[in-house]
Structure formats: C-alpha cells, structure tokens
Amino acid sequence: MVIILGESVRYDMLNCNRPTGLKTPHLDRLAAQGVSFDKAYNCQPVCAPARSAIWTGLYPHTNGVWGNSMALGNTTHTIGQFVHDHGVKAAFIGKWHLDGVDYFDTGRCAAGWDPDYWYAMRDYLQELSPEDRVRSRNPATGDDPSWTADLCYAFRCTNKAIDFLAKHRQEDFLLVVSYDEPHGPSLCPIEYSRAYKDYEFPRDGDLDDSLENKPAEQRVWAAGRLEKHLPAQKAPHFFGSHTFVDAEIGRLMAAVEKDSPEALVMYTSDHGVFLDAHRLIDKGPAMYDEITHVPFIVKWPGQVAPGTRSSSLVSHIDISGTIMDFFGLDVPKTMEGKSMLPLWKEPKSPGRDYTFIEWGRYEVDHDGFGAFQPIRCICDGRYKLSIHLMTTDELYDLKTDPREMNNLIDSSDHAAIRNHLHDKLLDWMNVSRDPFRGYYWGRRQWRPEFPVTWANAGMTRQRENDGYLPRELDYDTGLPMINATRPK
C-alpha cells in the first residue's frame, strides 16, 4: 500500500475535480485509474491536527494534537507501529509534524516506522549548507534559477520513496510519502512558477462575502479586507509548487507501476487554503469547504473500476482503520474510525452518515490565528452545522449554497435538520470523550430550551483495549472495566 499525502491542496486544485487551469496531469491520471471521492473531509483544517487523525485513527481531541506544536499523547500509537508489530514493513518519508516541537520535528524516527527511510523536514535541513537552509525558508528563493529540483524537499522525498520501492517490492509494505510543498515558502524550480506568471485562480462569489451573520472571529480575521474588492488570486509560486509536486507524484507513480504494479495507492491532502475565499487567508478557525473538503483518490488494480466517481461521504478518521483491514488485521476498538475497504470496492454504496470536524488552536512557533477558538462541526453531505463555542454558529445547505454564503442557523424552516445535527454532534462529543464537552455546547442562542445539568450526559467513557495497554479498571470497584461507554 502506498499513501501519498498532499499539503495545502484543496479539492478544486486538482484539474480532474475542477478545470481551473491548474496543471495536475499526474493526479488526473491517478484519478482516471481509480475512484475519486467528491465528498471527503478532514478532521481539523490545519497541519498537525489533520495529520494526527490520519495516522492514529483518533480525533485530535483524543490523540492530544488539537493544535500545532502539540505532541501525540504517550498512550497514542500510530498506524506504523500497529502494522509493524504485525509483520508489515512501514516507511514514512516526508513531513511528520507530530513531535510537538517546531515545524521541522526532532528528526527522530517514530515507533514502528523504518528508521532507514525516516525523512522528516529536520533531516532535510541538516543535509543543506547553512546558506541553503536560509534560502530554503525564503519565498524569494523561488525566483532564483539556481534553486533547482534536487534542492527541493519534494524531490528528495520522492527519491527515497523510489529507493524503498525498488528494495522492498517483494514484501508487504505500507509506504507513506508526505510532501510539504506547496505549503509556504512554496519553493520549486523557477520554470514552474514562471508558468503561472499571468495565471489567476477563478474568482468565485465567496470573495465578496460580507461575513454578516457569520461568527465574529471571522470578521476579526478579515479585518482590513472587508471593504476591499479582492481580485482573483495570483500566486505563481504557490501554484507552480503545486504543479511541481504533481510532477514528483508522476515520478513516484512510475516507480510504483514498475516495482509494485498491483499496489493500492491512495492520495489525499491534509487541508486546503482559502485563496481569499470569505475574505480569509491561509486556513484557520472556520469550517468552510475551501479548507475542510479535500481531494481523495484510490487506485486499486483489480478491485476498483477505473474512472469511477463517488458521492459517498468520506472522512480522514477512517484511514488508519482501513489500513489495518487492508492487511487483514483487526481494527482496534480504540480507533474512532472504521474501514473504508467495502466502500472502495463499491464506491456507489453509502459511505458515512456524518463526518465530524473540529478546531482547537493554530500556531507555528508564534501566537496567532485567533489563538484558542474551539469549534465542533458535523456534515451529512448536504448540511453542515458548526458550533463556535465562544461566539455564534453556522448552518449551510451545501446543495443550494455550495459557497456557504447564507447562514441558516436562525432559519425556522431549517430548525428540524439543525437540531437533529446538533443532537448527533453532541452525541459524538460524548462517545469520543471530547475533553472540551459540556452543557455550553448544547445550550445555544438558537436552542435556549436545550436541557442542561451540571452532570452533563452522565456517562463513563473509558478506553477500550488497543493491544498495548492494560485493561482499564472501574473507578468504583477496581475490577477490569466491562463496558467502556455506560451510564454512571
């Protein structure tokens, strides 16, 4: 199995998903060889938390990474450790971002993954001269013809992956290739950015969003931009870097087809970027599709019909459980997702009833992006409800309002679906042992009759056994716990 993880690639940045003029021929080819899911969502639209859910099968509020620069909990195990301990070779090449330190991680191989192929961004920086390290973090370097492909992180990640495929093609393996580009500083060989010198990303109506009747933090975020006319986005370095990574994926896929032609290949992205949609920049405490709706492609020779498109609802939380199932292993009860293998084999079958997305905090090595802005979100494929704990909430009909301009949170015509989704969201927070849960998520301005008690839902939510930890003990008896979720 080969998993390719993109960085800062939104759903409509693939030409096969939307013909915008962006060049993604290799990803388009991958989609033509397998199934593309049109309704795939991440678990939190920022780097580390999004990745934490993918590689653990646990939501960020469970695994500990509810913001950047926060480490996985010491009782949390990644999919690499699970499959390694069952005899499957596991290699992780590229951006990890889960050590809880800086953007570049520690360079120490995480448990279960092959140390010979571990290649976090710190490893890459240590290969460069001090001068090139500084150049590698400077966006202006993208205009320097001397910054060639071999100096780019994506190129070196691909080379290591090609080497792994050549040496381990006779084995069962899990190979992850996790690119950092086109995330800033968006470096690539100059010919790629020059190709987008005059390119403009299509200007959609949400660039004119007044943010009226939207959560207050969005207006704070958009300060200084609300009264401006925002032109179509021009970002030659970002878009050029995106096409450069597509070319690297082409190199990688050529090696897969040579050495492991029957391998299952999955591509997705951690999150998208706004490109000025809703007058917002980058990504952050919001649940709009530009940053939560991600590309998701599966090529599985002999199992998935080429050129298939699916409208089934898909979530990143199910990736780890799917990997376990693919290798014939039991999905640990601790994982909060499930296997997608049946859906991959029958893409027209129903997917999830709901996907859940959250927000905690965003920072790199500095405070910013609104600091602590707790959000919990549920989407059923048509309607999306977002509870912004410290301000006001949102409800959108993605069928009639795909740009999420008309907030229906106070619409009496939509009260029944809103309250239904609200109940399902609160239930998920209880079942997943969300440490931020409480009555305040239920009693909202638009639902003042919601019953509240100091005991909240009154449920015990201990953890099931994941194969690594001892069975939890009941607090009242000291005996092994029987039912993890029960009235107390």
UniProtKB/TrEMBL annotation:
Transmembrane segments: none annotated. Keywords: Calcium, Hydrolase, Metal-binding. GO terms for molecular function: arylsulfatase activity; metal ion binding. Residues 2-328 form the Sulfatase N-terminal domain. Pfam families: Sulfatase. It comes from the Bacteria. The keyword Zinc-finger does not apply. Belongs to the sulfatase family. This is Sulfatase-like hydrolase/transferase.
